[in-house]
Design goal:
The protein is mostly helical. 57% of the residues lie in helices and 9% in strands.
């Protein structure tokens, strides 16, 4: 059975970026602060991000490397890219079928 884990939406959006391989608390903090002010000052935002990443680490969704100022990376099970790609493929197939059906009806 798969477990569900709650992840903050802002952090989740950043973690799903395709260019993201290794990241630190500070890098995630800077990214979310560039998008929104709802986390307050830099220290509050850093603590929030650190707690969220610690939760993901304990759940086994990310990997930690180093000590002190750690670098993190995503585990393959966290990746949503394959799910999105398959969803896009299904939607494209349905769209093409719809377009073809309308073209056939226009000819009739």
């Amino acid at each position: 059975m798969n477990k569900k884990h709650r992840i903050n939406g802002d952090i989740y959006q950043i973690l799903c970026l395709p260019s993201l391989n290794y990241f630190s608390v500070i890098e995630i903090r800077n990214s979310i602060q560039s998008n929104t002010n709802k986390y307050g000052n830099k220290n509050n935002a850093r603590l929030f991000v650190a707690r969220q990443l610690q939760s993901l680490l304990e759940a086994g969704l990310i990997i930690s490397k180093g000590t002190g100022r750690k670098k993190y990376s995503l585990k393959p099970i966290f990746s949503i890219k394959p799910i999105l790609n398959s969803l896009i493929n299904v939607l494209m197939e349905k769209l093409l079928l719809l377009i073809n059906n309308r073209m056939i009806m226009a000819v009739l």
